[in-house]
Specification:
alpha/beta; Maf protein; 6 helices
């Protein structure tokens, strides 16, 4: 069985590579706006991940397990996406200062031979230290976190902002490896 990662995320690529899995990357071209944000975050991320894995699986031949994933940050009950600009990134990070927020990742695996799809999700609570405006500005100007949900990457410099987490660290990076492995083992009888 061959693996396909339906994501262009360099972080997901590195995490999957860390498991010693050989895979190719085929980015999904599915219309993500078709998924409503009015559903609970754990449902939203699973639906997006499933949309990605099923759309790529339908475009390729059989014999592949297609992995789709999506990650969102949720603060005060609202889904926080990727910042559009400096001001939006500043606003996001300021709102996290001295509080906690949640990160949800949905994962979906589709067998391209028969269309069978299994999904799961992971939830992690992230607690930020109190941040100064100068720290936030320095981070945004230096690390340009515009491609990251919530405007930060826990695996890089922003780790100094994090007081603690409750849950899976790799979920916050963008691919909950333990959940993915469990899904592959239970639903597809695949042991990496």
């Amino acid at each position: 069985m061959k693996f396909v990662l339906a994501s262009k995320s360099p972080r997901r690529k590195e995490l999957l590579k860390s498991l010693g899995v050989e895979f190719e990357i085929i980015e999904s071209s599915a219309d993500e706006s078709s998924i409503s944000k009015s559903v609970p975050p754990k449902v939203y991320v699973q639906e997006l991940a499933m949309l990605k894995s099923t759309s790529v699986a339908s475009e390729i031949g059989g014999g592949h397990l297609v992995i789709g994933a999506d990650t969102v940050v949720v603060a005060d009950g609202k889904i926080i996406g990727k910042p559009k600009d400096f001001n939006e990134a500043f606003s996001m990070l300021s709102s996290f200062s001295g509080t906690s927020h949640k990160v949800y990742s949905g994962i979906s695996v589709t067998d391209s031979s028969n269309g069978y799809t299994a999904t799961d999700y992971s939830e992690t609570e992230v607690f930020f230290n109190k941040l100064t405006d100068e720290e936030i500005k320095h981070y945004i100007n230096t690390y340009k976190p515009f491609d990251k949900a919530g405007a930060y990457g826990i695996q890089e410099y922003a780790s100094v902002f994090v007081e603690k987490i409750n849950g899976d660290f790799f979920n916050v990076v963008g691919l909950p490896l333990s959940k993915l492995y469990g899904l592959l083992k239970k639903e597809f009888d695949v042991v990496l």
